[in-house]
Amino acid sequence: MPIKPLRHWWENRIIWLIAALLSAVILLFMFIKVLIKRRAGTKTGIKTEISPSAKSEPTGQARCLSQDKNLIKLFGAFQVLNKAGEDITHEFTPKIKQLFLAILLHSAKSKSGITTEELTEIVWPEQTFQSAKNSRGVSIRKLRVILESLDHIEILFQRDRWTVFLSENVFCDYFECIRMLENPQFNSMDYFFQLFRLVEDGQIVKNENYEWMDDIKGYVDYRVIDILLKYIGLLDHVEHAGLILKIIDRIHISDPVNEKAFELKVKILLAQDNHHFARYCHETFSKNFEDFYGQAYQKSFEEVASAVRS
Question: Which helix or strand (DSSP H or E) is residue 192 part of?
Answer without folding.
Answer: helix 189-199
